[in-house]
Amino acid sequence: xxxxxxxxxxxxxxxxxxxxxxxxxxxxxxxxxxxxxxxxxxxxxxxxxxxxxxxxxxxxxxxxxxxxxxxxxxxxxxxxxxxxxxxxxxxxxxxxxxxxxxxxxxxxxxxxxxxxxxxxxxxxxxxxxxxxxxxxxxxxxxxxxxxxxxxxxxxxxxxxxxxxxxxxxxxxxxxxxxxxxxxxxxxxxxxxxxxxxxxxxxxxxxxxxxxxxxxxxxxxxxxxxxxxxxxxxxxxxxxxxxxxxxxxxxxxxxxxxxxxxxxxxxxxxxxxxxxxxxxxxxxxxxxxxxxxxxxxxxxxxxxxxxxxxxxxxxxxxxxxxxxxxxxxxxxxxxxxxxxxxxxxxxxxxxxxxxxxxxxxxxxxxxxxxxxxxxxxxxxxxxxxxxxxxxxxxxxxxxxxxxxxxxxxxxxxxxxxxxxxxxxxxxxxxxxxxxxxxxxxxxxxxxxxxxxxxxxxxxxxx
Length: 461
Known about the structure:
Blueprint: H1 3-12, H2 14-25, H3 42-57, E1 61-65, E2 69-73, E3 79-86, E4 105-107, E5 110-112, H4 120-135, E6 143-149, H5 157-165, E7 171-174, E8 177-178, E9 181-185, E10 187-196, E11 205-211, E12 217-218, E13 221-227, H6 231-245, E14 248-250, E15 255-257, E16 261-262, H7 272-282, H8 289-300, E17 316-317, E18 321-322, E19 324-332, E20 336-345, H9 351-364, E21 368-369, E22 378-379, H10 385-398, E23 404-407, E24 419-421, E25 424-425, E26 439-441, H11 442-460
């Protein structure tokens, strides 16, 4: 119903839609220091004002929630569908080759620039879906609200502010991922742990370990300092560990070099930290409480165990797949250690079968896991009318088979009762999200706008 009209409208407004995306992408909207009236700094404030003006100029009723969130309503009828997107971005970073981060350009059918894929391009695609329904005069009986946040990349405090004032709609999707539909987001088992031990001066010894950048990134590099070990022994032991782990060791500055990865897919990396710990335990270092603790870490988080088998929490289900675990941060000195692992848990996981089991295994080794509760998984029934409607529109406009997917990451809708991620990238597309040369395929943006418009018609008419 209305497919011909929707396609003609979006196709005829494609150039205007792309220019509106570029307008937003020219603004550096990464989180900045707070100033009065600007909770996330000047950039997020400016992009929100620009988007609100844009939406108001297209005839929508808009509202500004104290410069945290902006909204546009399709009409004043009963709430039915929220579309939740964000206008903030990750830092530009280095290594751009096609264009500068805030100078969007089209090349080879792709729109390049920071935010084109995450999430300004999808946000504008949703806006044009609403424009199509509004300007075509399609008789919708319920309201659609576009919600634009400004702090998704740094904790989603913006949405917390919004939902303290507003109820969630009966249905919500966020175009901040990929098609077809992501209806399952794994839970999180917080992995911060500590231990202390008696200082020892026995030689040879481990002086310290420092590894990791962020709790959700498999470390590609890790550093340690040891004293009293001959170079020949270091080299021989390192060669053996490299053969086993494919992680290399450098003794000028003494460290390990592996391959980083996102913690939700730890099997895609080569964890420099776990390989470094393996090497340290194979060196002829003096026995002491510190080394006992390091050996316990190797026992609990052996190199290559990305499913939590050694920790006793390996599990899986058909809906959300396997539990994943990545040991990402560690500091060890003469008297203590402080570390963090990242665990993404399937929907079958809970405090009893995951968190308490992990705490018990670590306690047996003298290590305290500080978490008291895990973050629950998020699941929306894949056979619901809402999800089936999304998949139907996706299949209709792409000719591809629709299905439900799960993710180890988290999105804006994780805490919403009936929220899923839907678009904007097509399967197999590499948008270089969060990296240099971020881009979005122009055709995919156009197709997404058509799909979103059809969803509005199918859910709200």
